[in-house]
Amino acid sequence: MKNKSIVAIILLISVFLASCSARHNYRQQCASLVNTTWERMDIAKAEGFAGTLSYSKAVGLLSLAKTAQAVEKFQSCIKHANKALYYVDQSRRGQ
Prior knowledge:
single chain, mainly alpha, 86% helix, signal, Lipoprotein
């Protein structure tokens, strides 16, 4: 009985540590994507009206990503930052 309790405690500690590590990775990925997207955003490079619309979408999505980052919802941050990055690229193509 005592051995089962020790195994259960070790298992719980392992799961907890693994989840902390995953959260740290998401935090870093979120920050990296947000920074990359901000660096790529340059209104002067938006081509035409369609490009300006894509740029506006990117700004909105990046705002959502920054909000998610602030409240430590890193998976949501990553999702929004990736979408924002897509629209930044579309903006530069005039689409």
